[in-house]
Structures are given as structure tokens and as C-alpha cells.
């Protein structure tokens, strides 16, 4: 399956997005909005006060030259605007995606049914109504060409549905009543036949509505970790507020004692405050969160809660379905193992004959193997769709539990060992010892044995094997390095499961899985304090999905599965979990690293501003200005400009996230501390110096 | 600086590090209720107290109840001590004492001793009677230290326990701290001090005839050794005499001085071992001990270097104060000749890095940078190693902040010792790192902008500013060490001081307990390859940086116009 561009915002949209974000940055200056981000709210108040001081300096005697106060005020406004811009840009991508989705959600006509139709025929008497009037529990009819008016569960009928509006997948899917394919989504289109659907969500709460809200960020609530970080940042802000506020009386005292200079000006105090409070992370924190959700959407995953994205970074245990995730969907024949006295070619021929009409991938693989090994006819003669006369195929059925072919007087049968042993014994034969041995060996190796008989005489065994997907072993090794344990879930018996688990390189497996023991396994891990992630699609996965900390439902899954999950994978790709974990970790790492960077920056800013602030009281403090900034005003100005520009420079990082590498916590910490901690100490010294040189070049002293 | 000076400093550090494990093992046994060396003797006494007070060991408390007990017990202590100080002239043994203390001084002193600060706006020997000193102050010396230890134990239980709201029983923790730890150690140390020449008598003064002129002189005396022992062991620091440990009756010799230094630091350092032991991973405790040493040693070095270098201005006056091997003097102003520069610098940084505040030299007379070393060690929040209990729980709050940021950097929602750090923990941690600088800076600002505050300053220029900053940093961290230049016995300083001492003690204890309560209720997340390692050298460095940046950065502007500018001006740079 390939995703199409429904949710993907391509590069050509960027200029438009940026334009919109610039506009929104100003809208966001509304103090009622700003107050939710205490750090940037303080900056806004600072900008306002300095602007007033500038006006005062223009009209009367100011506390400092008007050009200085004016420039500081301008750059403080820029600081707020840059932060708003980053948030607007992050939101903008979501909005564009929401717009694309909204186009598909027009108000449609619904054919409401007053009661459940009797029998299996298409109901005829319905009343036309607007889709917004449909309530949970109502029933409606859709026919070829109709747009589905709401989410629902199919009660009656089978039809092919175009779900590209939601999934971006253009191939139609089959939806039918009962089973794992009974859920339909509002906004999708019926391509054939008809369906009777029971409404499962009230207007405005449907899947598409939720998706629009999510990608738009309208209902984005802060996640626990984001709240915790905000508290820390707010406390730093309060401390620095007190540091700067008390500096005024300290400075008045110092002026009195030194007998020279003038008390520190309000403009400089505000400049110092804004430089010290963690504006870098404060300005980017919400765009980091939005961008994290957005990165999921880019991979066609809809997170129904931000909490789940964060939790994804913490996952300790990954439950993976064997079929489709670890192995290719189907088993393949890899070997013919004849019993004593039978030639391999004889077995291969019989096996191929028995499988000619078997259209399952397993059956096809038997035919192909026989062709490869002995260059047998293969499927050539069946391409015409006709078989030689007298050939009578017997397809697999639940009653006989075997398949085969009758040819003249020859009866060839193949089937699972138990069934075939029964067959041999009921016909008066016995099961040869070497047959049993072969069967057991295959089972030990994790394969599936199929016994082949000819006229109730055993010929040998076909070895069917699960084919483990390429590259998985490395992937699981990576996960192990990340500290994540992988557990394979399979319905196979323990022997088979163990063999496949070993081949795939997973850490553990759950064999003969049932909904109950899946749920039990998750609870056990959680009781140990571990966080569990799993994927699922069937209704029987729903309880386990609801219990898991990160639950990804396939979009092709049933309504109960999708409701129990906290993420939905539109591509229905079971290995997506690994990417989701990486995105969660990226999100947290970006937050942590930018916080470190922001705090480390303060050291350089102190060295730039403190000597400048006391320049006329204690000129001796100039010794702290070891990077040689040209003048006190320029020093303060350079620090403020650096503080504003660094936000813009870091926007791409905030949106893209810090790349995650599976190298273990110790190494990650070392690397990030070096880059963002040490870098955060050094970078502002260089940056501030460069800005100062540039100011001098412009002739500002 | 001299080689022998460094040897003195190193000797102390080696001895204290060697003591950490044995003392720690003993303490861990005491607090986990296991059988220990003293239990045959003390268990019956302990049981007797529990019966008397109707306390059951099994009857544990949640954080609110624990906090309520701490508050009620300590406020009762303040009232009790206040009353004693106000009516001391009427009490036995001390009849004939000149005066009862003024209300503001009595209040300041009561809060000061109950909060383990031991700031003294008076001179002990002339103001207080023996009853006040022993029944009043010494009792609080024991109880304030025991309170600190009890709160730490409750905090550690927040990490060791899972999915419970119970943090232990305050009365049990308090009783054990006193009976098994503080009392026996004090008895041993008192005897050692008496043996080395300290006084221990109920006579209020010693009368003797001087050799010169055969005049009669009276030297105040009293039960000095017993009070000095707990003053150091409990990181209290309130001296019997005004001269504190510089007085020969408190601290007669270099040997007694070494004992006192070990006494005031051995429990705070050993608590890191108990921590490691109780949480079942001693490496965690050692990691924190290393962090404390990394924070402490450079400041000891700075103080020693600066004091050895002396005052360049005096050298122009042909009075060399810089140290040479022949005359290892350095800045000897305000220092005892029998201790010298190296030991004095060490003692000063130990006393300000624990919450002791005892002094053997006049900090006001230190060189600007030497004084700044003492000042910064307090302003870090007294966590290296800090007061009994309070030092470690303060450090653990820094650990939570460090883990929070570092944890994010490795891509997990942060956890420490298996406990997730979520908004509530961050709220409490934020309060805990915010309150101290907020109080210290605001009150310093108030003092330098009001007449009442300015009148206490005795030196002009930046040094005067340092005096005020030092006073509030000391009280705001429950240290109690005095820069000594400031004249603090005024209603303004007494009341502002009492407020900041009370606030910085109990406003921090309550969020600490709330934090413990919330941690105890959490599950424990198992450790894996993705878990942030909190014992690696890298994390140790990170934690040191966090303490420095979060703790000291707030004070940099104030330091710049205090000791830093004073140093630059003195050095003529």
C-alpha cells in the first residue's frame, strides 16, 4: 500500500504557510493568549514597557538615549513575534492538512431507516435527512455513489468503499457486516452495492471530525511532560524576575556607596530579564509539541492523544503480531521430505498435483518449489483454466481438513499431520516411524509439516516455513539498544513460535495467543511498571489495545479496535510502531536539549550584561567583559538581538526534531550534553561578539 | 599556600571519607529498625518513650500527617524556647543572669535554634544563663538536627516504597535519631573535648588571680563541652561563647578542631551512604557524595588560595601578608594563630557548606574572594553536604531537576530511581529551588533600601553590601554563620531574620514531604538500557552544573556588586 498525498504537505506549500504564519504571529500577540506561556508573556510585558519608555524618551528626557531604548523595544517585540511565528508555522501545516480533510466532509443527505429491515434484502422505505441530524444508534442506507453521512457499523450488506478521503489509499476496500471489516467512516464513498449502517458517533464527533481537530491543533491540550517542563520554566522565570527586580535597589545602594554613576535603568533591567529567562525553549516549546504530532501525521498516523505520543518515547515492551509484522503474511514450501522408499521427485510430483487447484499462497508455493527443484510442468496447463480430463480436485474444507486430487484411480491427499495420520489409520495402515520423525523435526524447526499420501500410502512431507521479513533482526537489535523488549504474539504452538522468535531475533513470544492471555500479558508487564505498546486490528484485540499504554489500530480494523486504540495508522502498517517510538523520543529529546541550551546561554549573557549594567557605577567590572564588547549599550543590545535571533535559527530544529539514534541512554546524554550544553555555553559568546562587531560596522556605538 | 597547609586540608578529607561507610552502615541499621551495636542498651529506653507518648511504631503517617507533626512539634519548641529566654532570670541554675532577652531577640533566637540555623544576635556568655544554654538551646540543638534527619528518612521512603501513601512515623524517626545517633556521639565527643581542655561545669564563671598585678579576673564558664559536641554533630553551630569555636574553652587545640570539623560533617556525608543503602543501590549514594565533594573542594581551595595571597594593599604598607614557607601567614586578620590560614579556610568552607555556621575565624575579615567562597557555598542551597538531613534532601531536589532535563535528552519522560517525574513533582521541586533565592534577594533588597536595614551595616562600599547579603544568605539557608561585621541585634534584623529562618526551614520541609508522598504513591519503573544512568561520571558532572547554574547563577549579579567588585578594587585590576 502506498500513501498518497492527502495528508502530506509538499514543499510548494511552504511560501503560503510562511506568509500565513507571519500574519498569525501578530494575531497571537493577544495577551489573553500569551498568558498561557508565562515565559513569553513576561517578554511581551517587557516589550510594552520598553516601548512606553521609548515614547517617553522621544518626547521628554528618557532614562537612556531614545535610539537605544527604541532598538531594545523593537528586538523584544521581535523575540515575542519569532516565538509566535514558530508556533504559527507548526500549526499552519496542521491547518493545511485539516483544510484538505474538511473538503471531504460536506453535509450530505442521509437515507434514514426507521427500523432494522427484515431479512437480507435491500430496504426500500427510507426518509431523506441531513447528515448532521443523524444520532448515535440511528440507521441509514447507502447505495452506490453515495457519500457515507457518518461513522458507523455495517448491519447488513457487503460493498466496496473508496476510503481515499481518510487514508489516502486509492484502492477500494471491501466492507461487510460482521467480522473485522464492518466499520465504515463518514466522508468515504460507496463504489458498489449497498449497505445498512448503524451510526456510532454523533455529529461533530466522528472520526473525520476528530482528525480535523487533531491536525489543526484546535483541541491540543498540553501533555503531562510539557506541563512539568512549563512549571520548571515558570519557576526559572520567577527567580530571574526577582533577581532583576532586586537589582534596582542593589544598584541604588551601590551608586550611593560608590558616589558615582546612576542606578541601573529599567530598560537594561528588562533586557537582562528577557535574556535570562528561558526564552529559547519558552518560545519553541509549543511548536515542538505540535511538530511532534505533525511528524506522526506525515507518516500517516493519527494520534488521538498527545499523551500517547509522549508515552511512545517511554515504551519498554513492544507487542508485535507475528503474521504480517514479523513474517510475510504466508508460509512457503521450502522442502520435500520423502519417507523411506519414496523418491523425492515422486513426492514432489504428487504434491504439485494436489496443489494445482490450490489458489492459496501456500499452495502456489508448493507448485513453484516442485518446478524449481525438478522443472515440473508448473502451472502451464492450468493457464487455460482447464485441467486434463478425469482430474477431480478436492478443495480444503473444514469437514475433511485436507485437500487433494483424484486422477483416474489415484487419490492424492495433503493435510496437517493429525488429519493425515487418522486417514492412514482408518484405512488400516499405520504411520511409519520415519514419517513421524520428519514431522516432528519440521515442527521443532518452527515449520509447518504437510503430509502427502497417495492412495492412503504415505509419500512424505512438505515443509512449509514462515518467511521472516528482511532487516527485522537488525531493527530488533536496535530496539534492544534503546532498551525496548520485543514480544511476538502468535496463534502458533509454542514450538513453532520459539523457532520463529529465534529466527526473527525477538526477545520473547506469546504462543497460542488468545484475547485473554494477551490482556493478561500486558497487565503483567504493567504491574512491573513497564509501558507496553501494541498494534491490532481485530475486535478481539480491542481489550488488549485498551489496556496497552500505546495502542495503534490499523485503519482497516474494526470500529471497536479503533476506539480502543490511542493512535490510528492510516497505512495499516504494523511495523509503524517502531517509527512511532522514535518520534516520541525525538519529541522529548528536542524539549530537553533546547532547555539545556537555553539555560546554558545564561552564563554568556551575564558576562555581557552585568559589566554593562554597572558601567558607570563600577567601571572596574569591565574586566568581566573579556570578549571585548565595544560599549555597554552595544553589549546589551547584542545580547538581546542574539536572544531573539537564536529562536528563529532554532525553528527548523524544533519542527524537525533532534534525530534519534538507537545508541543507548548514556551515549545519547553525552552527545546531547556536548552539543546543547557545552555548545549552549560557547555559542552565545561567539554570537554576541559577532553581533557586536556587526553593530560597530553599522556605526552604532 | 604551603604544602603543610594542603596536607591539613587533605587529612581532613581523607578521614571524613573513610568514616562515611562505617557510620553510614550503623545509621542505616538504626533507621531500618535492625539490630545494631547499641540496641541492647537503647531499645528498652526507646520502647519506654513510645509507651510514655502512646506512639506505635507500626502506626505510619502519610505526608500531611508527617508534616503536621513536624510543624506542631517545632512550633511548640519555638514557644518553649521563647518563654525560657524571656524568663531566664527567674529560672534555676541561672539566677543572677543580668536580663531576660528582649522580645525580638528572644523570638529570633528561638526560631534560630529550632530551625537548625543558630544565628546568634547576642553573645552567649554575657546574655544567656546556664539554664537557657542547656535546657533551652542544647535541647533544640538535638531536636532540630533530629527533625532534619526524620524528614530525610521520610523523603527516602518516597523512593523506596511503591504505591503507598505512608512515609513512616515522625515520632519514631525523631526518637531514633536522638537516642541512637546524636546522644551517644555527643557523649563521646564531649568527653574527648573535656579531655582536650574544654570546660564542663555548672559554675557560671571561673574566678582567678592573674599573674600580672595579682588582679582578680572572672572568665565565664558553664557546661561548654556538652553543648559544643551537639553544636557540631547536629550542624547547629550556635556557640556557647560569642567567639564561637575560636574560643579556647570551646575549641582548645588543633586536635579538637579536627574533631569538631569531622563531627559537623560526618553525618551529612554519611547520609548519602544511608540513602544508597536504603534504596538498595549504594552507587547512587556514592555518586551524590562525589557531587558534594566536587562542589565543596574548589571553594575550599579558593578560600585557602585567597587567604594565603592576603591583601595586596597591605603589602604596599610594608606589612607582608602573603604566605611564604618561612612565614605561612597570609591574611591573618581575624584568624587564630593556633589554627592558621589553611585550617581556618577549611573550617570556614565546611561550616558554610554544612548548615553549621560555627566559626573559628572572623569571616568579615576574609579577603573578598575568601568570603565569597563561604557565601556561595550557602547560596548553592547548602547541599554540599548541607545540614543534617536538609542537605541531602535539598540535593535530591537538584537531582530531580537534573534528571528531568537529562531524562528528556535521552528521549524518555524523566524518572529517578524508577519514579516518574511528573507535573506534581516538578511543581514541588520548582517551589523548593525558588523559595530560597526569592527570600534572600528580597530581604537583602529590603535591607539596603530602608534605614532600619542600612543602619546595621558597619563597612562602606561593596563590603557593606556583602555583609547584608551574607546575613540573609546565612539565615535563608539555616546556616547561622555570621559575617559578623553587621550589627544584627535590632528589631529589623531580628524579625526579618526570624521570618526568613522559619520560612526557609518549614516552607521547604512541607513541599519536600509532599514530594515524598507523591513519589511513594508511584509505581517503580524497572531499569533498562534506555534508562538515564544516574551514577555515570557524565551525570555527576551534569548534576554539579545544575547545582551551580540553578543555585548560583541567581546570585551572580548580587555577587558582582559585592565581593567580586571588592576584589577587583582591592587587587587594583
From TrEMBL, chain A:
Q: Which family does it belong to?
A: Belongs to the cation transport ATPase (P-type) (TC 3.A.3) family. Type IA subfamily.
The active site consists of 321
Stored PANTHER family: POTASSIUM-TRANSPORTING ATPASE ATP-BINDING SUBUNIT
Identify the residues that bind ATP.
358, 362, 396-403, 414
Catalytic activity field: K(+)(out) + ATP + H2O = K(+)(in) + ADP + phosphate + H(+)
EC number annotated for this UniProt entry: 7.2.2.6
Tell me what this protein is called: Potassium-transporting ATPase ATP-binding subunit
User: What Pfam family is a match, any one?
Assistant: E1-E2_ATPase
Q: Taking every annotated instance into account, which residue ranges of this chain make up the domain P-type ATPase A?
A: 131-216
Query: Which keywords does this chain's UniProt record carry?
Result: ATP-binding, Cell membrane, Hydrolase, Ion transport, Magnesium, Membrane, Metal-binding, Nucleotide-binding, Phosphoprotein, Potassium, Potassium transport, Translocase, Transmembrane, Transmembrane helix, Transport
Transmembrane spans? 38-58, 64-85, 227-252, 264-290, 606-627, 633-653, 673-700
Q: What is its main location?
A: membrane
Q: Quaternary structure?
A: The system is composed of three essential subunits: KdpA, KdpB and KdpC.
What is its membrane topology?
Multi-pass membrane protein
Question: Which organism is the protein's source?
Answer: Leptolinea tardivitalis
Automatic annotation (TrEMBL), chain B:
Q: Which domain of life is it from?
A: Bacteria
Residue ranges of the TM segments: 6-28, 70-91, 130-156, 177-199, 258-279, 286-305, 387-408, 429-448, 495-519, 539-565
The main place the protein resides is membrane
Where's it found, cell-wise?
Cell membrane
| A GO term, aspect molecular function | potassium ion binding
Q: Report the membrane topology from the UniProt record.
A: Multi-pass membrane protein
Q: What family is this protein classified in?
A: Belongs to the KdpA family.
The protein, known as: Potassium-transporting ATPase potassium-binding subunit
Natural source organism: Leptolinea tardivitalis
In the UniProt record, what gene is named as encoding this protein?
A: kdpA
Amino acid at each position: 500500500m502506498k500513501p498518497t498525498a492527502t495528508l502530506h504537505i509538499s514543499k510548494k506549500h511552504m511560501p503560503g504557510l510562511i506568509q500565513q504564519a507571519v500574519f498569525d504571529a501578530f494575531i497571537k500577540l493577544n495577551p489573553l493568549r500569551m498568558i498561557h506561556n508565562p515565559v513569553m508573556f513576561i517578554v511581551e510585558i517587557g516589550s510594552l514597557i520598553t516601548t512606553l519608555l521609548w515614547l517617553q524618551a522621544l518626547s521628554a528626557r528618557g532614562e537612556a538615549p531614545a535610539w537605544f531604548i527604541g532598538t531594545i523595544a523593537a528586538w523584544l517585540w521581535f523575540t515575542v513575534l519569532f516565538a509566535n511565528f514558530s508556533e504559527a508555522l507548526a500549526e499552519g501545516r496542521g491547518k493545511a492538512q485539516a483544510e484538505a480533510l474538511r473538503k471531504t466532509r460536506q453535509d450530505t443527505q442521509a437515507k434514514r431507516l426507521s427500523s432494522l429491515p427484515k431479512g437480507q434484502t435491500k430496504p426500500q422505505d427510507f426518509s431523506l435527512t441531513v447528515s448532521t441530524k443523524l444520532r448515535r444508534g440511528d440507521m441509514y442506507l447507502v447505495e452506490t455513489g453515495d457519500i457515507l453521512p457518518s461513522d458507523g457499523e455495517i448491519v447488513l450488506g457487503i460493498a466496496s468503499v473508496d476510503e481515499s478521503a481518510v487514508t489516502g489509499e486509492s484502492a477500494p476496500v471491501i466492507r461487510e457486516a460482521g467480522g473485522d471489516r464492518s466499520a465504515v467512516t463518514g466522508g468515504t464513498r460507496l463504489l458498489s452495492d449497498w449497505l445498512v449502517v448503524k451510526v456510532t458517533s454523533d455529529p461533530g464527533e466522528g472520526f473525520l471530525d476528530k482528525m480535523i481537530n487533531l491536525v489543526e491543533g484546535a483541541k491540543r491540550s498540553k501533555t503531562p511532560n510539557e506541563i512539568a517542563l512549563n512549571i520548571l520554566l515558570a519557576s526559572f522565570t520567577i527567580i530571574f524576575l526577582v533577581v532583576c527586580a532586586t537589582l534596582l535597589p542593589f544598584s541604588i545602594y551601590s551608586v550611593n556607596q560608590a558616589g558615582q554613576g546612576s542606578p541601573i535603568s529599567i530598560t537594561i533591567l528588562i533586557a537582562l530579564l528577557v535574556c535570562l529567562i528561558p526564552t529559547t525553549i519558552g518560545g519553541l516549546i509549543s511548536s515542538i509539541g505540535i511538530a511532534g504530532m505533525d511528524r506522526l501525521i506525515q507518516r500517516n498516523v493519527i494520534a488521538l492523544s498527545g499523551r500517547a505520543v509522549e508515552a511512545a518515547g517511554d515504551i519498554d515492551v513492544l507487542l508485535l503480531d507475528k503474521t504480517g509484522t514479523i513474517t510475510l503474511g504466508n508460509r512457503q514450501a521450502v522442502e520435500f521430505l520423502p519417507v523411506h522408499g519414496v523418491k523425492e521427485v515422486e513426492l514432489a510430483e504428487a504434491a504439485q498435483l494436489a496443489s494445482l487447484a490450490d489458489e492459496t499462497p501456500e499452495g502456489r508455493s508448493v507448485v513453484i518449489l516442485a518446478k524449481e527443484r525438478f522443472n515440473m510442468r508448473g502451472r502451464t496447463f492450468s493457464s487455460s483454466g482447464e485441467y486434463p480430463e478425469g482430474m477431480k480436485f478436492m478443495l480444503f474444507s473444514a469437514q475433511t481438513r485436507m485437500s487433494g486430487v483424484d486422477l483416474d484411480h489415484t487419490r492424492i491427499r495433503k493435510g496437517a499431520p493429525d488429519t493425515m495420520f487418522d486417514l492412514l489409520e482408518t484405512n488400516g495402515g499405520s504411520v511409519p516411524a520415519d514419517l513421524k520423525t520428519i514431522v516432528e523435526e519440521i515442527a521443532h524447526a518452527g515449520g509447518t509439516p504437510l503430509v502427502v499420501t497417495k492412495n492412503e500410502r504415505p509419500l512424505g512431507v512438505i515443509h512449509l516455513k514462515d518467511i521472516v521479513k528482511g532487516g527485522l533482526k537488525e531493527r530488533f537489535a536496535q530496539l534492544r539498544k534503546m532498551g525496548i523488549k520485543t514480544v511476538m504474539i502468535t496463534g502458533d504452538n509454542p514450538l513453532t513460535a520459539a523457532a520463529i522468535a529465534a529466527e526473527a531475533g525477538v526477545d520473547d513470544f506469546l504462543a497460542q495467543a488468545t484475547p485473554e492471555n494477551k490482556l493478561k500479558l500486558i497487565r503483567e508487564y504493567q504491574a512491573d511498571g513497564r509501558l507496553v505498546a501494541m498494534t491490532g486490528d481485530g475486535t478481539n484485540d480491542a481489550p488488549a489495545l485498551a489496556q496497552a499504554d500505546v495502542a495503534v489500530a490499523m485503519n482497516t480494523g474494526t470500529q471497536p479496535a479503533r476506539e480502543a486504540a490511542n493512535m490510528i495508522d492510516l497505512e495499516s502498517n504494523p511495523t509503524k510502531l517502531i517509527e512511532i517510538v522514535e518520534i516520541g523520543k525525538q519529541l522529548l529529546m528536542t524539549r530537553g536539549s533546547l532547555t539545556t541550551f537555553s539555560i546554558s546561554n545564561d552564563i554568556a549573557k551575564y558576562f555581557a550584561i552585568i559589566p554593562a549594567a554597572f558601567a558607570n557605577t563600577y567601571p572596574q567590572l569591565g574586566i568581566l567583559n573579556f570578549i571585548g564588547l565595544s560599549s555597554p549599550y552595544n553589549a546589551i543590545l547584542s545580547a538581546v538581538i542574539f536572544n531573539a535571533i537564536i529562536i528563529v535559527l532554532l525553528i527548523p530544529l524544533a519542527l524537525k526534531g533532534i534525530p534519534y539514534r538507537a545508541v543507548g541512554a548514556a551515549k545519547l546524554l553525552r552527545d546531547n550534553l556536548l552539543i546543547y550544553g557545552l555548545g549552549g555555553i560557547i555559542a552565545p559568546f561567539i554570537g554576541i561578539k559577532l553581533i557586536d562587531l556587526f553593530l560597530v560596522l553599522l556605526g552604532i556605538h | 599556600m604551603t604544602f603543610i597547609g594542603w596536607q591539613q586540608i587533605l587529612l581532613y578529607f581523607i578521614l571524613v571519607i573513610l568514616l562515611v561507610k562505617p557510620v553510614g552502615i550503623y545509621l542505616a541499621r538504626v533507621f531500618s529498625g535492625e539490630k545494631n551495636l547499641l540496641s541492647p542498651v537503647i531499645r528498652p529506653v526507646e520502647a519506654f518513650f513510645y509507651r510514655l507518648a502512646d506512639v506505635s511504631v507500626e502506626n505510619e503517617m502519610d505526608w500531611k500527617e508527617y508534616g503536621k507533626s513536624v510543624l506542631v512539634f517545632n512550633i511548640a519548641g519555638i514557644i518553649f524556647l521563647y518563654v525560657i529566654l524571656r524568663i531566664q532570670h527567674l529560672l534555676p541554675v541561672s539566677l543572677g543572669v543580668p536580663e531576660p532577652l528582649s522580645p525580638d531577640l528572644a523570638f529570633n533566637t528561638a526560631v534560630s535554634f529550632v530551625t537548625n540555623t543558630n544565628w546568634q544576635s547576642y553573645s552567649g556568655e554575657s546574655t544567656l544563663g546556664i539554664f537557657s544554654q542547656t535546657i533551652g538551646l542544647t535541647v533544640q540543638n538535638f531536636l532540630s538536627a533530629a527533625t532534619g534527619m526524620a524528614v530525610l528518612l521520610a523523603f527516602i521512603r518516597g523512593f523506596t516504597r511503591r504505591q503507598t501513601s505512608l512515609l513512616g512515623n515522625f515520632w519514631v524517626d525523631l526518637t531514633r535519631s536522638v537516642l541512637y545517633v546524636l546522644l551517644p556521639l555527643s557523649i563521646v565527643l564531649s568527653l574527648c573535648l573535656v579531655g582536650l581542655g574544654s570546660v564542663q561545669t555548672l559554675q557560671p564563671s571561673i574566678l582567678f588571680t592573674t599573674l600580672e598585678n595579682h588582679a582578680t579576673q572572672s572568665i565565664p564558664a558553664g557546661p561548654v563541652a556538652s553543648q559544643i559536641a551537639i553544636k557540631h554533630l547536629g550542624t547547629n553551630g550556635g556557640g556557647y561563647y560569642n567567639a564561637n569555636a575560636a574560643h579556647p574553652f570551646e575549641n582548645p587545640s588543633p586536635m579538637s578542631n579536627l574533631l569538631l570539623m569531622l563531627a559537623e560533617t560526618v553525618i551529612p556525608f554519611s547520609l548519602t551512604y544511608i540513602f544508597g543503602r536504603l534504596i538498595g543501590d549504594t552507587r547512587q549514594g556514592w555518586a551524590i557524595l562525589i557531587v558534594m565533594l566536587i562542589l565543596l573542594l574548589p571553594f575550599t581551595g579558593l578560600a585557602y588560595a585567597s587567604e594565603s595571597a592576603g591583601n595586596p594593599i597591605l603589602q604596599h604598607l610594608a606589612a607582608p601578608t602573603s604566605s611564604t614557607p618561612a612565614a605561612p601567614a597570609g591574611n591573618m586578620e581575624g584568624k587564630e594563630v593556633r589554627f592558621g590560614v589553611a585550617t581556618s579556610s577549611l573550617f570556614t568552607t565546611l561550616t558554610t557548606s554544612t548548615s553549621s555556621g560555627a566559626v573559628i575565624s572572623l569571616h568579615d575579615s576574609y579577603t573578598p574572594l575568601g568570603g565569597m567562597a563561604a557565601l556561595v557555598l550557602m547560596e548553592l542551597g547548602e547541599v554540599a553536604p548541607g545540614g543534617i538531613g536538609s542537605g541531602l534532601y535539598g540535593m535530591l531536589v537538584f537531582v530531580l531537576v537534573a534528571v528531568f532535563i537529562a531524562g528528556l535528552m535521552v528521549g524518555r519522560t524523566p524518572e529517578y530511581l524508577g519514579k516518574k517525574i511528573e507535573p506534581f513533582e516538578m511543581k514541588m521541586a520548582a517551589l523548593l529551588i525558588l523559595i530560597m533565592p526569592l527570600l534572600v534577594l528580597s530581604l537583602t533588597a529590603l535591607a539596603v533600601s530602608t534605614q532600619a536595614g542600612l543602619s546595621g551595616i558597619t563597612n562602606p562600599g561593596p563590603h557593606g553590601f556583602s555583609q547584608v547579603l551574607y546575613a540573609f544568605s546565612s539565615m535563608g539557608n539555616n546556616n547561622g554563620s555570621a559575617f559578623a561585621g553587621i550589627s544584627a541585634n535590632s528589631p529589623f534584623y531580628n524579625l526579618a531574620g526570624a521570618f526568613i529562618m522559619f520560612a526557609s526551614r518549614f516552607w521547604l520541609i512541607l513541599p519536600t514531604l509532599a514530594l515524598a508522598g507523591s513519589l511513594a504513591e508511584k509505581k517503580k519503573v524497572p531499569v533498562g538500557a534506555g534508562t538515564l544512568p544516574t551514577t555515570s561520571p557524565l551525570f555527576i558532572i551534569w548534576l554539579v552544573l545544575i547545582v551551580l547554574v540553578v543555585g548560583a547563577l541567581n546570585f551572580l549579579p548580587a555577587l558582582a556588586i559585592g565581593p567580586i567588585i571588592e576584589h577587583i578594587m582591592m587587587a587594583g585590576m
